[in-house]
Amino acid sequence: MRPAEELRYLILAIQREGNRLLASELRHLDLTPSQAEVIRVLADRQPLTLAGLGELLVCETGTNPSRLVDRLVAAGLVSREQGRHDRRHVTLTLTDRGTDASARIAEVESRLYETIDDLTEGTPVPETLATLRAFASHFPAGQALARRRQQSGDST
């Protein structure tokens, strides 16, 4: 197996397992991992426009996550307000229910991150992150994650 092929499949295997674990933990909140990402990004950076949200999402590439947002608005977790002067300018914020959901999602994520910390203990995580960042930077989802890191002031 070529190293590039193994890297591809290792990333896929880890992503699938991580997503499976996350989905299992979010099920009791009636949320998908993608919906949880929207809620957490809004919790950290609201208010955001629909396009601004799209620029920060890893789960959905592009700048129009309207289907995801539509479901969260219908569930009463996100509020969508049209601009007074331009109806195309939509601002998104969390409702009180969305803020509560964000706190519960953060607890789920914390448990997942503790598991990842345990599984990677004693391994060269900083070097691995540097390699993966360099690789991901060539793709929209990796660029979205880089924007989130920059906006949070995380330079590690």
Structure description:
The protein has 156 residues and is mainly alpha-helical. Helix 1 packs across helix 5 (96-120), helix 2 (33-45) packs across helix 4 (66-74) and helix 2 (33-45) crosses helix 5. It has helices at 3-26, 33-45, 50-54, 66-74, 96-120, 125-136, 140-152, and strands at 48-49, 78-82, 90-94. The radius of gyration is 17 Å and the shape is globular. Strands 1-3-2 form a three-stranded antiparallel β-sheet. The protein is 65% helix and 8% strand. The mean pLDDT is 92. It contains seven helices and three strands, in the order ααβααββααα.
N-to-C CA distance: 32 Å
Please report the total strand number as a whole number. Answer: 3
Strand order of the largest sheet: 1-3-2
Strand content: 5-15%
Largest sheet: 3 strands, antiparallel
SSE order, one letter for each helix or strand: HHEHHEEHHH
Radius of gyration (Å): 17 Å
Low-confidence stretches: none
What general outline do the C-alpha atoms trace?
globular
Structure class: mainly alpha
Chain-averaged pLDDT = 92
Helix % is 55-70%
The DSSP helix count reads 7
